């Protein structure tokens, strides 16, 4: 069956359900997206895994966060203990959780559930030079892809933890989308006005280090983080395996910008789960022509927004698979 025939059958299947045409709004579009990705009129969305990638950023030494870098390790411990918001949401929604050391600077806990794949002990300070070498960027991308392929689930939700990672995200989005840097730089974990001005100055200077146009891989090496690189690799691998990818907030969206720059064909697998409260996220989504499902004012990260979109994917697939048609239910069609 060619794409045109499949789309015609898909449209007829959705329009033939016991509802007015278009009455389920974006759920219908989401159902069609899932069906096209899986190549079937009866798609399933039964299982989801959240993978949280944790890493540190050398630019934290510039004082760009209200929290110390030690919080990265402390939050990894919290994830492993099941105490974070992401853990609570995942447990409530029946999603699995995996935690990855992508490159944390501090000493990691000895825990059987921690996936240890560090590329380094944090990136270098991007204010003064590249955050990572091209080899490190390639290794991180490949590691993220490997982890995604091994993670179970019809859908993959991706989260992150890393003090100062909003700085990397803003720089990546600026260089890959062309959005003005000042529109993308926010208060992160709670900077005051002076702290925000300092952050803007540091990131502007970092961007000015490399005035030439950069490929996605080169931008990642210059300004990225190990966790962002692994998310980008995971997104590409999961999408190419015909699995839905739930993109979280600002940092995950910067990973999506890298992944889409490297592999534009993965776009049909990506679901931008929410518009976060981070100052630059709305601008980033607009630049990527992405329509988020939710807008809850959240700016936590960890994959929390991605998880909250998971029930919508399940509902969309169930609508297409399980909802009665007019003919099957004996309900009169609209005139």
Automatic annotation (TrEMBL):
The keyword Transferase applies. It comes from the Bacteria. Pathway: Nucleoside biosynthesis; alpha-ribazole biosynthesis; alpha-ribazole from 5,6-dimethylbenzimidazole: step 1/2. It is an enzyme of class 2 (transferase). Its EC number is 2.4.2.21. Catalyzes the synthesis of alpha-ribazole-5'-phosphate from nicotinate mononucleotide (NAMN) and 5,6-dimethylbenzimidazole (DMB). This is Nicotinate-nucleotide--dimethylbenzimidazole phosphoribosyltransferase. It comes from Rhodobaculum claviforme. The gene is cobT.
């Amino acid at each position: 069956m060619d794409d045109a025939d499949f789309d015609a059958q898909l449209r007829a299947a959705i329009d033939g359900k016991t509802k007015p045409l278009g009455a389920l709004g974006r759920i219908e579009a989401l159902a069609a997206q899932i069906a096209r990705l899986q190549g079937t009129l009866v798609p399933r969305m039964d299982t989801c895994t959240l993978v949280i990638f944790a890493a540190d950023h050398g630019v934290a030494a510039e004082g760009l966060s209200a929290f110390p870098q030690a919080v990265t390790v402390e939050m990894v411990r919290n994830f492993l203990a099941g105490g974070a918001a992401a853990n609570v949401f995942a447990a409530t929604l029946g999603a699995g959780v995996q935690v990855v050391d992508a490159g944390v600077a501090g000493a990691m806990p000895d825990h059987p559930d921690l996936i240890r794949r560090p590329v380094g002990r944090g990136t270098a300070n991007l204010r003064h030079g590249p955050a990572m070498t091209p080899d490190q960027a390639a290794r991180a991308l490949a590691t993220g892809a490997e982890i995604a392929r091994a993670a179970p689930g019809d859908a993959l939700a991706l989260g992150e933890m890393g003090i100062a990672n909003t700085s990397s995200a803003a720089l990546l989005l600026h260089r890959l989308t062309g959005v003005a840097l000042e529109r993308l730089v926010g208060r992160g974990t709670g900077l005051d006005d002076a702290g925000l001005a300092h952050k803007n100055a540091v990131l502007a200077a970092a961007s000015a280090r490399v005035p030439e146009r950069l490929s996605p891989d080169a931008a990642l090496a210059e300004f990225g983080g190990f966790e962002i690189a692994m998310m980008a690799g995971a997104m590409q691998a999961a999408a190419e395996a015909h699995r839905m990818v739930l993109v979280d907030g600002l940092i995950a969206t910067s990973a999506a910008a890298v992944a889409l720059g490297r592999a534009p064909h993965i776009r049909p697998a990506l679901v931008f789960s929410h518009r976060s409260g981070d100052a630059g996220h709305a601008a980033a989504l607009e630049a990527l022509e992405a329509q988020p499902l939710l807008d809850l004012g959240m700016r936590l990260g960890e994959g929390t927004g991605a998880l909250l979109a998971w029930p919508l994917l399940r509902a969309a697939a169930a609508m297409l698979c399980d909802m009665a048609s007019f003919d099957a239910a004996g309900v009169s069609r609209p005139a």
